[in-house]
Automatic annotation (TrEMBL), chains A, D:
Pfam families listed in its UniProt record: Acyl-CoA_dh_1, Acyl-CoA_dh_M, Acyl-CoA_dh_N
CDD domains recorded: ACAD (cd00567)
Entry keywords, A to Z: FAD, Flavoprotein, Oxidoreductase
Domain Acyl-CoA oxidase/dehydrogenase middle, residue spans: 135-200
Cofactor dependency: FAD
Family: Belongs to the acyl-CoA dehydrogenase family.
Highest rank taxon of the organism: Bacteria
InterPro entries, per database record: Acyl-CoA_Oxase/DH_mid-dom, Acyl-CoA_Oxase/DH_mid-dom_sf, AcylCo_DH-like_C, AcylCo_DH/oxidase_C, AcylCoA_DH/ox_N, AcylCoA_DH/ox_N_sf, AcylCoA_DH/oxidase_NM_dom_sf
Taxonomic lineage: Bacteria, Pseudomonadati, Pseudomonadota, Alphaproteobacteria, Sphingomonadales
Stretches assigned to the Acyl-CoA dehydrogenase/oxidase C-terminal domain: 228-374
Acyl-CoA dehydrogenase/oxidase N-terminal domain ranges (all copies): 7-119
Organism: Sphingobium boeckii
MF terms in GO: acyl-CoA dehydrogenase activity; flavin adenine dinucleotide binding
Protein name: Alkylation response protein AidB-like acyl-CoA dehydrogenase
TrEMBL record, chains B, C:
Domain called Acyl-CoA dehydrogenase/oxidase N-terminal: residue spans: 6-126
Keyword presence, Oxidoreductase: yes
GO molecular function: flavin adenine dinucleotide binding; oxidoreductase activity, acting on the CH-CH group of donors
Domain (Acyl-CoA dehydrogenase/oxidase C-terminal): residue spans on this chain: 235-380
InterPro entries referenced in this protein's UniProt entry, alphabetically: Acyl-CoA_Oxase/DH_mid-dom, Acyl-CoA_Oxase/DH_mid-dom_sf, AcylCo_DH-like_C, AcylCo_DH/oxidase_C, AcylCoA_DH/ox_N, AcylCoA_DH/ox_N_sf, AcylCoA_DH/oxidase_NM_dom_sf, Mycobact_Acyl-CoA_DH
Cofactor: FAD
Entry GO terms, CC: plasma membrane
Pfam families found in the cross-reference section: Acyl-CoA_dh_1, Acyl-CoA_dh_M, Acyl-CoA_dh_N
Keyword Oxidoreductase: yes
Protein name according to UniProt: Alkylation response protein AidB-like acyl-CoA dehydrogenase
Family, per entry: Belongs to the acyl-CoA dehydrogenase family.
Domain Acyl-CoA oxidase/dehydrogenase middle: 130-223
């Protein structure tokens, strides 16, 4: 498969781009931010995502979705990133759907229609500390009656406050640090003994701390196999990681574009600042970094869609590279905008904040570079 | 015991007796500091007590002459005071653009009357100053500024607009670059002082990405400024401005600041789990400790009249870039905790707000790019415009 | 099975049967490759066998048309051949500036007679070419070149000096930029081909910091060049040169090269002891694998006529900087062993010499600085000279 | 003490500078290199070092030396670095002398006069693998009769081939990885069962592999205490590390100066290349890095001379920072010189090679940054 978008994919990009620019540009983001909306996104917009076919795009056709792949999801996510469009698309339609693919028919039947309709929102409850360390999960799920009893705390549950369904990783056996003994659960947000404290994050998205104080779930809440959840958890996380990388690429591309534009407008010392060679070289270097990061992301998505075992390594490469390149893009963006880059009035700072949250989500560049080293055997 | 040893011993005893425990904590951020002014606000009685005691000894400005409200200390004594304050962790009693920026300029360019009057006010924290340099079209290219002072005999009438005036909405007076001759770009600027309560002065805070508004837009609409409120000669304000910028850059560089601890050491457990972050922390420690040595060397050389006069530009460049890097690593070590902007556990998002604040370090007081230009031209003597 | 699948299966079988085991090792350095020429040298019988077998199929240049000595493969077939060769570790049978640089230029700008004549020679490795571009005063500013060809009716008489002519002392022919009109900087250059055995051509190897001499100074003293040995139009050689530089940059970038293994994985034990080096190795792996994806994307886009025409400059910039970084880490991992320049255990100082060799990567074929200029101007459309 | 040279130190710098420029400039270096001299330096020059008072500058006055400190040694080393002057000064007069300070009077009496006279050369035999890992020393020194019997291999013994005396670190107890159980020995180069294989290094200096095949030494060959050599070994190595850092600063400063000069001479596109802002900014950044590295080195030397316990940390900082900054200086130097920077004819490449060897000597920038982290407790 050649490493560029085919005609269908290019069409999808055009329509996703037009949609986000029209329906959810940065002004839309600002509106929701300034209104202090507790969900952090518009449920109306989420319905429009459904009308566009985005919300169920990864769901197989025989289950009512479009049966598309991660390249296509990445196309939508990149446009989301470019426009800072607030939505539960990544957690719901990418990560949540990837997890539900491993669930039984009853569970799928219960949740997929709502996702396709843009009515259901999913939150992902994996992290327990400030840094993403999935093998360190300590939260317990003890056998109890016909099901399990979940006890522990989760944090950085993005869109947790608005979620209807939580995908929860808990330990049914083993000890923190072990990859064996983990199990994935689909937990209704309204379950008894489940409480939540929402926190507005730096990018105005909503994260939540979730407290499981002996939450009882039935056995059919299990996704995949008991004790052997690491593989399905990794698949779910990897879908989220490469999705976050795509969204980050959109953030970085928009930051770079608006910065290059600014270089062509702002005058100092009687010249456009884009004439200054030092800035030209930095912009050109940034362009190279962004292009390489973009290639890594697309390659990883193609491998993932092809079921290639090399996808895992390439996803780690892509998340690490996108993290580093996009961080450079927003830093250079703010610095080259000078004083106005520091103001809330200009958009460039919003991109810096969004990058910060995306970079941290499901493992930062250091986490993934370390993972690359481990996968290479050192 | 030599005189200096005696001074050190006495200073330590005095600090131990007079610096309240609450004032031995580092200043958390700009809002945690004492800024003085006509209507001063103190975060605690201890803050006021510490300010009063230090001002009484002249140690808000230890090396200024005593007649101007300073402590009259020699360079060696100043260094000892700094060292002893650092050992106890004593914070600086007063944060002030008057001390950091205007004061040094007045000491060099002011008349004796101006020194007596303004420097004493600054030393005692009675007047809070702000800086009127940048304009919307004149950022890095400062000398293109357009704010104009029309000569009206015994006063000027000033019209124009400034931007990035730090805390202008809270300041009592402004030191301001004003064009008094439209024909010469450099030799047509004067350095004026005036009261922000003068009719015609208005300010408008600028909301920043950190959510705070430490800077303002400031508008001058027919503001009268008496002729004796000029520092230096008419139309030679650029000399004063350049001199002052050197001090501002020195200040922003963090040279001579209290020691900053190892960030990696604060996150030992994480360091064991995150080898790549640990590598960055190790390199940060190397650069932090090396730059601290550079700060000490820089101050020693400046006090001895050695060192290149353009060196503050290098200090400003390196110090602010390092500070940004440190803030990035604070965020990385903080993980998703440090993303929280509004939550109980996050102190109102202190970490992300401070992180965003540092991004201004390499812009305010001359961008890193301008610093590099100056180093290239004035220190390395490279050719070209 | 689709046609492509059949092609893949047949190719694999052929390679397995025809590529000698010795030719399934990576090329160690430039001296380990087969360069062809009038007086070819082969490091082993296997090298000659591999060269002959591949040339017979036209697979020294798989995507050139068959009448010119190529394999006539489609882009998809070429990619399959590349992939299958990579899987078996087959090295390229022939290293040749004719293939990488002159060939593509001839395919685009040559007459049919030139194509038949020169391309077949190149494909079969019969003539070894060198490049006459840079001059002592014309490096990055190539277009300022002074070597002059005086019109003598049916031939030119060329006088001047070139520098950085790769292996000019071993080359049979040169493709050379010569000024044929002194009045127009750009439109006064012609692209000439001539035999290095022509009287008046002399070469002088340049000793490099690596201790090797892959480049020469080349002098032309009244060298006659027949008029049919021009590529493209008179005085329009700059168009040919620019096109060729794009291919040179693509080649130097390493796009499409055989995969490069993980350096960290080669030093597992050291990685456990040297956490900071391990961090750098991890980041190198990230960039290496990401750039490999970029190389694949670049080639796919080029073959499909997509992608920005100035993209080879980006590839050249990133690829050569990455290669230098890799060599630095080879040295760091090698420690004091890798410092040995002349010793039994060090293979004649292979590592340090290779390390020093990589420093030229970001200079030859257009410096990194020129690449960044081109990206800024042609891709980002930034203003200015 | 202020962080700049006092008048005496400034005078020393002037005389060391004049001496190296006149007696041992890069042409001198090239002469020795091209002659393939097996020692790698001129014994006549080494005598001149003695006449200048350099060779015994760190030896206490009551033992015939000048009783100077590491700031002063650093001044000489920086000028050596600037001129690439080949000499055994660092291994002999800095590292060797520092070790001999812990030796008994007899040992000192045996070797110090020859050092002061510029007749004796010392080699330092610590490393056993390709990387500097002193706590990993495996070479054994078993008790044997009245003394010890040394068995093992050393490498990267700079000036080993020309040495009269080797300072050898060996294990009298404990296992590799432990700092306890190490002992330092003064071993005559002519001892039986000691063999050597010299290797010319990338910078044309001579390193040696030394083979100890049961080398017998008397008990008075021990420097310091048996089994407790770690402290004296560390002191010796730290003297060498900060000395190497000073020499590196000289290398970097010379590389930077010649590069800035070149920027003022070379024309391309009708302008001096020093007018191009991208190069200006890179040169200015390099200047800042070099200044900071220089300050760290001087601070470490002052602390070392004052016997301050913070010296250990600051030496690690200085070696790490100098390693990084000087590496940048030589890389930028070669790149900004363009093609001619690659030629053997121009000096800039020689500085790149010298930096490479100095950077590796007694621990590279990564080793020392890691050491900084450990000393800070993480």
């Amino acid at each position: 498969m050649p490493l560029y978008y085919d005609d269908d994919q290019a069409m999808l990009r055009d329509s996703a781009s037009a949609f986000m620019k029209t329906e959810a540009p940065t002004t839309h983001f600002r509106e929701f931010r300034d209104r202090n909306c507790s969900d952090g996104f518009s449920h109306d917009l989420w319905k429009q995502f459904a009308e566009m076919g985005f919300s169920g795009m990864l769901i197989p056709e025989d289950q009512g979705g479009l049966g598309m792949g991660h390249v296509e999801a990445g196309i939508v996510l990149e446009e989301i990133g470019r426009n800072l469009s607030p939505s539960p698309f990544l957690t719901t339609s990418v990560i949540g759907v990837e997890a539900l693919k491993a669930a039984d028919a009853a569970t799928r039947g219960k949740w997929l229609p709502g996702i396709i309709a843009g009515e259901t929102v999913i939150g992902i409850a994996v992290d327990e500390g400030a840094k993403h360390r999935p093998e360190q999960i300590a939260m317990t799920a003890e056998r109890s009656g016909n099901g399990f009893r979940l006890t522990g705390k989760k944090q950085f549950v993005v869109q947790g406050a608005a979620a209807d369904l939580l995908i929860v990783a808990a330990r049914t056996a083993g000890a923190p640090g072990e990859t064996d003994g983990l199990t994935l659960f689909a937990v209704d947000k309204d379950a008894a003994h489940l409480s939540m404290e929402a926190a507005r994050l730096v990018d105005s998205s909503m994260g939540a701390h979730v407290n499981f104080d002996g939450v009882e779930v039935d056995a059919d809440a299990v996704i995949g196999d008991v004790d052997n959840g690491w593989a399905v958890l990794t698949r779910m996380l990897d879908a989220g990681r490469i999705g976050a990388a795509s969204e980050a690429i959109g953030v970085g591309a928009a930051a770079m574009d608006m910065t290059v534009d600014y270089l062509k407008q702002r005058k100092q010392f009687g010249r456009l600042i884009g004439e200054f060679q030092a800035l030209q070289h930095r912009a050109a270097h940034l362009y190279a970094e962004m292009e390489v990061a973009r290639a890594a992301v697309l390659k990883a998505q193609q491998l993932l869609d092809a079921g290639d075992p090399k996808a895992e390594l390439m996803i780690a490469v892509a998340k690490a590279k996108a993290g580093q390149a996009v961080s450079l893009a927003v830093k250079e963006g703010v610095q080259m905008h000078g004083g106005i880059g520091m103001t809330d009035e200009y958009d460039i700072g919003l991109y810096m904040k969004r990058d910060r949250a995306l970079a941290e989500f499901l493992g930062d560049a250091n986490f993934h570079a370390d993972r690359v080293a481990r996968l290479q055997g050192y | 015991m030599s005189d200096l040893e005696t001074f050190r011993a006495e200073t330590r005893v005095w600090l131990e007796a007079n610096c309240p425990p609450e004032m031995r904590e580092p200043v958390r951020d700009e809002t945690d500091a004492c800024w003085g002014g006509r209507n001063p606000t103190y975060k605690s009685p201890a803050q006021k007590l510490w300010m009063d005691r230090m001002a009484e000894k002249g140690w808000t400005v230890p090396d200024w002459p005593k007649p101007y409200g300073g402590g009259g200390l020699s360079p060696a004594e100043s260094k000892i005071l700094r060292e002893e304050m650092a050992k106890l962790g004593c914070r600086s009693p007063l944060s002030s653009f008057g001390i950091w920026m205007l004061g040094p300029a007045l000491l060099k360019f002011g008349t004796e009357a101006q020194k007596i009057h303004y420097l004493n006010q600054i030393a005692k924290g009675e007047i809070r100053w702000c800086q009127g340099y940048s304009e919307p079209g004149s950022g890095s290219d400062l000398v293109s500024l357009q704010t104009f002072g029309e000569d009206k005999g015994d006063h000027w009438i000033v019209n124009g607009q400034k931007i990035w005036t730090s805390y202008a909405d809270k300041a009592d007076w402004i030191f301001c670059l004003v064009r008094t001759d439209k024909h010469d770009k450099y030799k047509g600027i004067s350095f004026l002082l005036f009261d922000m309560a003068t009719p015609g002065v208005t300010t408008k805070p600028i909301k920043l990405i950190s959510g705070n508004s430490p800077f303002c837009e400031t508008f001058f609409d027919n503001v009268p400024v008496p002729k004796d409120q000029i520092v230096g000669e008419l139309n030679r304000g650029w000399d004063v401005a350049k001199y002052l910028l050197g001090h501002e850059r020195e200040m922003i560089s963090g040279a001579g600041n209290a020691p900053v601890g190892s960030l990696g050491a604060l996150h030992k457990e994480l360091m064991a789990q995150d080898p790549l972050l640990r590598a960055e922390m190790a390199k940060l420690d190397v650069d932090t400790l090396a730059f601290r040595a550079m700060g000490e060397k820089f101050i020693d050389e400046m006090k001895a009249g050695k060192g290149h006069p353009a060196q503050p530009n290098m200090m400003k460049y390196f110090g602010t870039e390092l500070n940004k890097r440190r803030a990035e690593l604070v965020m990385a070590a903080g993980g998703s905790d440090a993303l929280e902007w509004e939550s109980d556990g996050s102190g109102g998002g202190a970490k992300p707000r401070q992180w965003l604040r540092t991004k201004a370090n390499s812009i305010e007081g001359g961008t890193s790019e301008v610093m590099l230009n100056v180093i290239a031209k004035r220190i390395l003597d490279l050719p070209g415009a």
